[in-house]
Amino acid sequence: MEQEMEKRKRTSSTASSEANTIRDEDNWVHDSSLDHKGRVPLRASTGVWKASLFIMTIEFSERLSYFGIATNLITYLTQLLHQDIKTAAKNVNFWAGVTTIMPLIGGFLADAYAGRFSMVLFSSLIYLMGLSILTMSQFIPSLKPCSTKMCQQPRKLHEVVLFIALYFISVGTGGHKPCLQSFGADQFDDDHTEERKKKMSYFNWWNFALCCGLFLGVTAIVYVQDYVSWGVADLVLTITMAFTIVTFYMGKALYRYRIPEGSPLVPMLQVLVAAIRKRKLPNPSNPALLFEVPESHKQSQGRLLLHTNRLRFLDKAAIIEENENTSWDQKHNPWRLTTLTRVEEVKLILNMIPIWLTSLTFGLCVAQASTFFVKQAAIMDLHITDNFKIPPASIYSLGAIAMLISVTVYDKILVPILRKATGNERGINILTRIGIGMIFSVVAMSAAALVETKRLKADRPQSMSVFWLAPQYIILGFGDGFTLVGLQEYFYDQVPDSMRSLGIAFYLSVIAVGSFISSFLIIVVDHVTGKGGNSWFGKDLNSSRLDNFYWLLAAMNGLNLCVYGLLARGYTYKNVERRVVVADDTSLSNGIDQSMA
Fold first, then answer.
1. First to last CA, the chain
2. Predicted structure pTM score
3. Is residue 255 within 8 Å of 46, Cβ to Cβ?
4. Which helix (H) or strand (E) covers residue 577, if one does?
5. Domains plus CATH for the chain?
6. What digits encode the pLDDT tens for the residues 421-430?
7. According to the UniProt record, where is the region Disordered (predicted)?
8. Helix (H, G, I), strand (E, B), or coil: what is residue 121?
């Protein structure tokens, strides 16, 4: 009898201990993040929406500034600095390209050395410096374009200062964009079921805030630029950015922080070197024989990846040879033996390259919205009523509205329905979402070509309402809601955990390279068509054939979509082994999660 009582006590004690462990897991965040004092974060007082809202405010301000400048920059260059349309379009595309390629540098530095919070704060101050110089170039007499109101011969000094300010903004964006969005996503614990679902909505609502900034940038800010003063508009942007930087810093105590883990390139190089060294060894029949972090050290090593059957050659880097030191406590040579997780991380990056390449034509379409679309609007009837007309760049707001509608409908209506229908937490896979947006881009370019053909055939092209451009903006906006948001989620989710700032930078590089390709394509098409004496890009739009250029883009996107579809069908997603904290019944389960995004 006494033995039975003792057994029950031990069982009760064990159950109580397990319950305490479960409560501890649910109360504290064990995902390698820390609070602002360097401790394990308390779940109730850090992260999720209360932290990410502070982060979203600075994103709103940055997008307000960027789109307030970018969408009307071609107008400024052609009307105030008297650049021809070809030169102005190339300058805008080049600046936009540099601005969106710089995050590759900023993302790398943040992940490897600086940390996301520090990089966001530092780069935001550089961004503020760029806006301040831009403002000074409009108010300091010697830096103004001209001494007179009507500027026939703008000062060269003003042009130099203008581009210095713009490229300060580019550098600021380089650290700001990749780190801010990934820092916001870091506020949600992947191992907590409720927080993981909120994280899936986070990317949608992030883009909602982005579109709000975009909408005000291309309406209110552009209106002030065109009808009040460029200087006043720049001053408003500078003050707004300064205010949101302070707001961002005020949320410091609520954030969850990730410690930088050193250069992510070194472990990748180690995998390649180790695989080459062991190239003559046969792959083991059972992946369990490959070297991996031992069970006793898993808690301290973050999330581990499970084996996939792609790129089996790289598995050789984790093959254990005879007499090879495999003790975790005694340091092994990482240039000869790497863990399976490191091997799978390299596979993730290599698998992304084809997806990245087939996303570039979408970036090519995005580049047209702030260049040729705006120039089309400038020579059309901008009147809404007899007494009120909108600035040309404000037509861009239709794309922002379409994206807002697309993101809201997707998150609140489509995802719940699709979750029930497919059993997928996300509703549909990420690559499917991206592909749907690519279909919209083909339709948008076709619509743009048809509208431009009609405009060129009109007896009085300038009497055509600017709202004829609405279909191409709205369709492309819907496409952005699928493809751009999908690309953000894809590159954040599918990169190794230590490279998430770089992941967002990879997404931004799609738009950057798209802008560079657009500039290059303009040069090539102008050269080829100019040989016949009728270049598609004349001195003005009425002597150009933009309709042919848009048909070319539609055809390129259509062909690219076919290739993308084949790649997406055979894609292998990130395969994560994780401990899942189920919030509803506060239970723990060891699980394998294939991030079918």
1. 56
2. 0.79
3. yes
4. strand 575-582
5. 28-262 (1.20.1250.20), 264-344 (no CATH), 351-577 (1.20.1250.20)
6. 888 888 889 9
7. 1-21
8. helix
